[in-house]
Amino acid sequence: MMTSVDTDLMRVLADPLRLRIVTLLARETLCTTHLVEETGARQTNLSNHLKVLRDAGVVDTEPCGRFTYYKLRPDVIATLAGQFADLAESARAAADNKRACP
Asked: Are the C-beta atoms of 31 and 71 separated by less than 8 Å?
């Protein structure tokens, strides 16, 4: 049973804009233009966040003419969800464990 969570991935997803991007990409594959429209972020700022998500393996890119589309990698999110599920199960199992004070 795993009782830890991928902290690097958590840091990547902890940023509100990156989490918003991931949420949007969970619904559909979008290009940068769509993401700018949906988030209201500046294109340069958005591109920097997309690079972080790409480098972390959270999203894949798909070139389409002069545009780049971004697609969420559900396996990465599922792995993280599984780590949290394992952590919750460990907490349930240890609910009655209490270390005595010296």
From this structure: no
Q: State in Å, rounded, how far the first CA of the chain is from the last one.
A: 29
For the chain, what is the HEC assignment? Answer: CCCCCCHHHHHHHHCHHHHHHHHHHHHCCEEHHHHHHHHCCCHHHHHHHHHHHHHCCCEEEEEECCEEEEEECHHHHHHHHHHHHHHHHHHHHCCCCCCCCC
- Of residues 38, 30, 23, 37, the one with CA closest to residue 60: 30
Mean per-residue pLDDT over the chain, rounded? 92
pLDDT in tens, 10-56: 999 999 999 999 999 999 999 999 999 999 999 999 999 999 999 99
Quote the pLDDT of residue 1. 47
Residue 80 in tokens: 């993280």
Radius of gyration of the chain (CA): 18
